[in-house]
Specification:
Strand content: over 45%
Distance between the termini: 40 Å
Structural class: mainly beta
Order of helices and strands: EEEEEEHEEEEE
Shape: elongated
Low-confidence stretches: none
Largest sheet: 9 strands, antiparallel
Helix content: under 10%
Number of strands: 11
Mean pLDDT: 88
Radius of gyration: 18 Å
C-alpha cells in the first residue's frame, strides 16, 4: 500500500542509499503547505498568506533491511546523526508507466516490533522532509525568491 492505494507487492520498489528494501511492509508519506486565506476588514478574502511547506515519511521494513541502513548510519555517528537521505519510491500497475517519487528525509524516530505468528521483527522508521518532494519528477513546491 502506498499512501492508501493498494498495489501488488511486485509493483512497489523502495530504494534507500543502503539499497533496495527487499521486504517493505508499508510506506506512507505526505506533504502539505500551510497557506492561509487572508481576509479584509469586511471579512471577504483578499489574498493568500504563504505558509510553510512540510512533509513526513514512514517506512515499515524487515529487520534485515533496517540492519543495512543502520550499518550505513554507523559511519555518520549513529542513526540519529545520519544526514538527510534520498528515499525513492517507484510504483505502478502492470502495463502502466511507473510513477517515481523522490523524498529527502531526515529520520527522527524508529520502532521495532513483531506480533504473534511473525517469523521476524519489523522496524518502522519515521522522519521529516528536508526538501520538497519530487512527485514523478515535478517539485511539489518551488520557494519564491524575494
Amino acid at each position: 500500500m502506498v499512501n492508501g492505494m493498494v498495489y501488488d507487492f511486485e509493483s512497489i520498489k523502495v530504494l534507500l542509499p543502503s539499497g533496495m528494501i527487499t521486504v517493505c511492509e508499508s510506506i506512507s508519506y505526505s506533504d502539505k503547505k500551510d497557506d492561509k486565506v487572508i481576509t479584509g476588514t469586511n471579512n471577504l478574502p483578499i489574498g493568500i498568506g504563504r505558509g510553510e511547506y512540510s512533509g513526513d515519511c514512514e517506512i515499515e521494513m524487515a529487520q534485515a533491511d533496517y540492519n543495512l541502513l543502520n550499518t550505513q548510519a554507523a559511519s555518520s555517528g549513529g542513526f540519529y546523526n545520519m544526514p538527510p537521505l534520498p528515499v525513492v519510491v517507484s510504483f505502478g500497475q502492470t502495463g502502466q508507466v511507473p510513477t517515481t517519487d523522490t523524498l529527502m528525509v531526515h529520520f527522527t524516530e524508529r520502532k521495532k516490533g513483531g506480533k504473534k505468528g511473525d517469523t521476524s521483527l519489523n522496524v518502522t522508521v519515521k522522519g521529516a522532509f528536508t526538501a520538497p518532494m519530487l512527485d514523478n519528477g515535478v517539485p511539489a513546491y518551488v520557494p519564491m525568491i524575494n
